[in-house]
C-alpha cells in the first residue's frame, strides 16, 4: 500500500511538473512574441549597424562557429561576464539551460549538466561527470580556481563529449578561454566595491615585444566578508571569500610553428561557516572551517602548419594543487545548551557534542594531447593520442577517528581517437567520431582490516604497527563516440540529429567491510539522442537554437547498501541486519528535455537574450537502503524508482534586456528563475523554486567605464545545498530535520575600469 501511494504521488508530481513546464514555455513564447510585436517598428526604422558578432568554439577541433555545430553548445562572452559581474564560473551557469551546480563548500565546484554530475567529495575517490578546462589545463576536480578573470569566453557543451575529451565528460564539458595578447600595448585597471565587504582590484598588461613575443599578464584579488553572521564569535567574516589569481599568456610565431604558453597561479583562502541550526544566515560555530586551494599550473600548445592546410597540434599541461577543506561538524559551541531544554542543570549531563573534520588533498595532474588535423575542405578529419595522469593524496583529520586517515589514488588514462566531417551534398553533412580509452587506477589507504589472528592493544591513537592497508587496483577499457547528420535548409537555418555515447570510469569502494563482489564498481555509460535547429532571422540580427534530447543511462553509479543478517552473517538473510554503504551499479535512469536559447539585436539601442531549459529525470529500478525512510536493520528498502534525480530542476529560465540610451549610457535588466530540486537521493529535502531580478547601469566614456549593479533585488532566500537525513541540534535532542545552505541575499555594488 505504501509503495502504491508512493507511485501515485510520483505520478501526480510528474503531472504537476509537466503543467508548470508548459506554463513556463507559454510564458517564454508570449514574452518573445510580445517583444517581436512591440519593437517591430523600431527594428524597421533603426536597424543595427552590424549582425551578431562571429563566435568560434575552440573546444571543437575545427574551431567552428556554434551555428555550424550539430550539438548543444552555449558560448558566454566577456560581455556576459561583465554584465553579471561574475568572479567565478558559478556566477554564469544560470545563463545556460539545464546547467546547475552544488556549492559543496564556499563556492560551486561540482557541476551538473542535464541532471548528471557530482555533489560533493569526502574520503571516497571521485570520478567526475563534467569536465572543466581552462586554457588547455584540466581543472576537473579543482574548479574552486575557475575564476573568470581575463576570460574571453566560456563554452558549455551539453551532452557526452567522449570523442575528443573522453573520461570526465559524460554529461558535458566547460571550456574557458582567456584573452590573447594584443598587437599594440594595452593596459587595464579595474576595481569593485559592494555590500558585505566586497572589494576587487585587478590589472592587465598586454602587447608584443620587439622580439615579436606576444604577452598578456594580469593579477586580480577578490574579497568579501560573506553574508553570514556568527553570533557566538561576534564576527561577520567567518564565511569570507579571499581569492588571488595571477595569469600570463605568451605567444610566438616561428615560421610555420605557433607557440602558446599559459601560466596560472591561484591562492584561494575562503572561510566555511555556512550552515545554521536555525536555517538562517546566523551561525553558532566556535571553530569555523575553511575552503582553500593553491594551484600552480601551465600549458604549452605547439601548432605546426603542414602542407595542404594540415596541421600538427601538441598540447602539454600540468597542474599541482593543495586543497584544504574543513568544517565544524557540530555547527555549534560548548555553550549551545545553556538555558535550553538540553541544559546540564536539567539532565545532569550535556547533550551537545563537539567535532571538527578536515580534508587535506595534494592533487597533481598532467595531460598530453597530440593531434593531426586535416584541413581538407570537403573531408576534414582529426586523429589523436591522449594521456592523462592524476595523483591524489588525502589526509583526513577527524575528531572521532582513532587515527588520521590517509589514502592515495593514482589514475592513468590513455586513449586514441578520431573524428571526421563528410559533405554528402552541399546541404547535408555527416560527422562521426570514435574514442578508445584505457584507464588504470591504484588505490591504497591505512584503514584496512587486521590480518586474521592478529591482536593489537586497543589504544588511541593506534601505533603504526596496528595500521593495515586497503589496497586495490582496477583496469578498464571503454569507448565513446558520436554520429550526427546536419542539413542546411538555407544559408541561415540548419537542422541536425545526433547520437553520442559517453562514459564515466568505474571506481573502488574503500570500506574494508565490503565483500569482494562489491569492491569495484563498473563504469557508467550513457546514450544521448538529440535533435535540434539553429537559425538566424531578421537580417541575421536574431540567433535562435533549440534542441530536444533523450539520455539513456546504464549502470548509474549510486549510493547503495550491503544488508547483512546479524544472526547468520548472510547478505539478504533474516533481520535484524547491519548495513554498509557503498557505490554500485544497480540503477538505471533516463534524462530528457528541451532547450532553447535566443539572442536578438533589435536595433542599435535594444538587445534581448534568453534561455529556457526543461528537464525530466527518472531513476529506474532503484531500491535504496540508505534513504532516510528505509529500515536497513529490518531489511526494508525505500523505492526510489520513478523519482527525480537530485540536483535536476525541472525548469531553468533566464531573460535579459539591454537598452543603450546613447553611446555612453546603458542599462540591463535580468530575470533568472529555477525550479525546486532534490538535494540528494538519500532524503526528500528540496530547494525552493525561485525567481531573481538583477540589474546593471553603466556609463562609458573613451577609456573609462563605471557600473552600478544589483543582484537579487527582491532579497529572495534560496538554497544551493541541503541535508535531510540527520539531526544536528542538541536543543532539539538531535531530531532529524532539514538544513540548508543559502545563496547570496541582495547585493548592491559599483565597479569601474580604465584602460591605457
How would you describe the overall organization of this protein?
There is one protein chain. The protein is mostly beta strands. The chain has a single domain, classed as Beta Barrel (Maltoporin, Chain A), CATH 2.40.170.20. Helices cover 7% and strands 53% of the residues. It has a 22-stranded antiparallel beta barrel. The protein has a 5-stranded mixed sheet with strand order 1-7-8-5-6. A 3-stranded antiparallel sheet has the order 2-3-4, with no helix packed on it. Strand 10 (198-208) and strand 11 (213-224) form a beta hairpin. The radius of gyration is 27 Å and the shape is globular. The protein starts with a helix and ends with a strand. Mean pLDDT is 87; it is low at 1-9 and 25-45.
Helix-residue proportion: under 10%
Described by the principal axes of the CA atoms, the overall outline is globular
Q: Could you say what the CATH architecture is?
A: Beta Barrel
- Report the top-level CATH class: Mainly Beta
Strand content: over 45%
Average pLDDT figure: 87
Q: Provide the domain count.
A: 1
How many β strands by DSSP? 38
How many helix segments?
A: 4
Question: In the CATH scheme, what's the topology name?
Answer: Maltoporin, Chain A
Topology:
Blueprint: H1 2-38, H2 40-45, E1 72-77, H3 78-84, E2 99-102, E3 110-113, E4 116-117, E5 130-134, E6 137-138, E7 151-158, E8 172-178, E9 186-194, E10 198-208, E11 213-224, E12 229-230, E13 241-254, E14 257-272, E15 282-283, E16 289-305, E17 311-328, H4 344-347, E18 356-373, E19 381-398, E20 405-423, E21 428-448, E22 468-490, E23 493-504, E24 507-508, E25 520-521, E26 524-537, E27 542-565, E28 577-601, E29 606-620, E30 623-624, E31 638-639, E32 651-660, E33 665-674, E34 690-701, E35 704-711, E36 719-726, E37 737-742, E38 747-755
Parallel strand pairs: 5-8, 12-15
Antiparallel strand pairs: 1-7, 2-3, 3-4, 5-6, 7-8, 9-10, 9-38, 10-11, 11-13, 13-14, 14-16, 16-17, 17-18, 18-19, 19-20, 20-21, 21-22, 22-23, 23-26, 24-25, 26-27, 27-28, 28-29, 29-32, 30-31, 32-33, 33-34, 34-35, 35-38, 36-37
Amino acid at each position: 500500500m505504501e509503495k502504491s501511494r508512493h507511485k501515485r504521488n510520483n505520478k501526480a508530481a510528474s503531472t504537476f511538473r509537466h503543467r508548470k513546464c508548459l506554463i513556463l514555455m507559454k510564458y517564454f513564447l508570449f514574452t518573445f512574441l510580445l517583444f517581436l510585436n512591440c519593437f517591430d517598428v523600431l527594428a524597421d526604422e533603426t536597424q543595427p549597424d552590424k549582425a551578431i558578432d562571429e563566435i568560434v568554439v575552440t573546444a571543437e577541433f575545427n574551431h567552428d562557429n556554434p551555428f555550424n555545430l550539430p550539438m548543444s553548445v552555449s558560448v558566454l562572452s566577456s560581455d556576459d561576464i561583465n554584465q553579471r559581474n561574475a568572479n567565478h564560473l558559478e556566477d554564469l551557469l544560470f545563463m545556460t539551460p539545464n546547467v546547475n551546480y552544488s556549492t559543496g563548500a564556499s563556492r560551486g565546484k561540482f557541476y551538473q549538466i542535464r541532471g548528471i554530475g557530482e555533489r560533493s567529495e569526502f574520503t571516497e575517490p571521485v570520478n567526475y561527470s563534467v569536465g572543466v578546462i581552462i586554457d588547455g589545463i584540466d581543472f576537473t576536480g579543482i574548479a574552486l580556481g575557475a575564476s573568470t578573470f581575463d576570460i574571453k569566453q566560456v563554452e558549455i557543451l551539453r551532452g557526452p563529449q567522449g570523442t575528443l575529451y573522453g573520461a570526465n565528460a559524460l554529461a558535458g564539458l566547460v571550456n574557458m578561454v582567456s584573452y590573447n595578447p594584443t598587437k599594440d600595448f594595452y593596459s587595464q585597471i579595474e576595481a569593485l566595491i559592494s555590500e558585505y565587504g566586497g572589494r576587487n582590484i585587478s590589472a592587465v598588461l598586454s602587447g608584443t615585444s620587439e622580439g615579436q613575443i606576444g604577452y598578456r599578464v594580469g593579477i586580480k584579488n577578490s574579497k568579501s566578508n560573506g553574508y553570514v553572521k556568527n553570533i557566538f564569535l561576534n564576527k561577520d567574516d567567518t564565511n569570507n571569500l579571499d581569492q588571488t589569481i595571477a595569469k600570463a599568456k605568451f605567444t610566438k610565431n616561428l615560421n610555420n610553428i605557433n607557440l602558446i604558453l599559459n601560466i596560472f597561479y591561484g591562492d584561494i583562502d575562503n572561510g566555511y561557516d555556512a550552515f545554521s541550526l536555525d536555517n538562517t544566515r546566523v551561525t553558532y560555530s566556535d571553530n569555523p572551517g575553511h575552503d582553500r586551494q593553491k594551484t600552480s599550473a601551465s600549458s604549452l600548445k605547439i601548432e605546426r602548419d603542414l602542407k595542404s592546410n594540415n596541421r600538427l597540434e601538441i598540447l602539454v599541461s600540468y597542474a599541482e594543487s593543495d586543497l584544504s577543506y574543513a568544517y565544524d561538524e557540530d555547527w555549534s559551541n560548548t555553550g549551545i545548551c545553556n538555558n535550553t531544554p538540553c541544559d546540564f542543570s536539567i539532565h545532569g549531563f550535556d547533550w551537545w557534542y563537539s567535532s571538527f573534520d578536515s580534508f587535506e588533498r595534494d592533487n597533481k595532474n598532467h595531460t598530453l594531447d597530440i593531434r593531426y588535423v586535416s584541413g581538407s575542405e570537403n573531408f576534414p578529419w582529426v586523429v589523436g593520442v591522449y594521456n592523462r595522469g592524476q595523483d591524489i593524496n588525502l589526509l583526513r583529520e577527524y575528531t572521532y577517528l582513532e587515527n588520521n586517515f590517509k589514502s592515495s589514488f593514482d589514475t592513468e588514462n590513455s586513449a586514441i581517437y578520431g573524428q571526421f566531417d563528410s559533405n554528402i551534398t552541399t546541404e547535408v553533412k555527416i560527422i562521426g567520431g570514435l574514442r578508445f580509452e584505457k584507464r588504470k587506477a591504484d588505490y591504497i589507504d591505512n584503514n584496512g582490516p587486521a590480518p586474521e589472528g592478529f591482536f593489537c592493544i586497543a589504544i588511541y591513537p593506534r601505533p603504526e604497527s596496528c595500521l593495515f592497508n586497503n589496497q586495490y587496483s582496477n583496469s578498464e577499457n571503454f569507448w565513446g563516440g558520436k554520429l550526427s547528420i546536419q542539413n542546411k535548409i538555407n544559408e541561415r537555418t540548419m537542422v541536425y540529429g545526433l547520437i553520442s555515447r559517453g562514459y564515466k570510469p568505474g571506481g573502488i569502494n574503500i570500506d574494508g567491510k565490503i565483500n569482494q563482489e562489491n569492491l569495484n564498481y563498473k563504469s557508467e555509460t550513457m546514450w544521448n539522442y538529440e535533435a535540434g535547429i539553429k537559425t538566424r532571422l531578421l537580417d541575421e540580427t536574431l540567433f535562435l537554437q533549440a534542441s530536444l534530447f533523450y539520455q539513456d543511462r546504464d549502470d548509474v553509479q549510486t549510493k547503495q547498501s550491503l544488508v547483512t543478517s546479524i544472526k547468520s552473517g548472510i547478505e539478504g538473510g533474516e533481520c535484524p541486519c547491519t548495513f554498509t554503504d557503498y557505490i554500485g551499479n544497480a540503477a538505471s535512469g533516463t534524462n530528457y528535455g528541451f532547450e532553447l536559447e535566443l539572442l536578438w539585436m533589435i536595433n542599435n539601442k535594444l538587445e534581448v537574450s534568453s534561455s529556457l531549459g526543461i528537464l525530466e529525470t527518472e531513476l529506474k529500478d532503484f531500491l535504496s537502503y540508505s534513504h532516510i525512510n528505509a529500515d536497513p536493520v529490518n531489511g526494508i528498502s525505500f523505492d526510489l524508482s520513478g523519482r527525480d534525480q537530485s540536483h535536476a530542476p525541472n525548469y531553468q529560465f533566464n531573460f535579459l534586456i539591454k537598452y543603450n540610451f546613447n553611446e555612453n549610457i546603458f542599462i540591463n535588466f535580468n530575470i533568472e528563475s529555477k525550479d525546486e530540486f532534490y538535494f540528494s537521493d538519500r532524503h526528500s529535502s528540496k530547494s525552493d523554486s525561485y525567481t531573481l531580478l538583477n540589474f546593471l547601469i553603466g556609463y562609458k566614456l573613451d577609456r573609462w567605464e563605471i557600473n552600478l549593479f544589483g543582484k537579487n533585488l527582491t532579497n529572495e532566500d534560496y538554497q544551493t545545498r541541503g541535508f535531510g537525513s540527520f539531526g544536528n541540534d542538541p536543543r532539539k535532542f538531535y531530531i532529524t530535520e532539514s538544513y540548508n545552505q543559502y545563496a547570496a541575499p541582495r547585493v548592491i555594488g559599483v565597479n569601474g575600469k580604465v584602460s591605457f
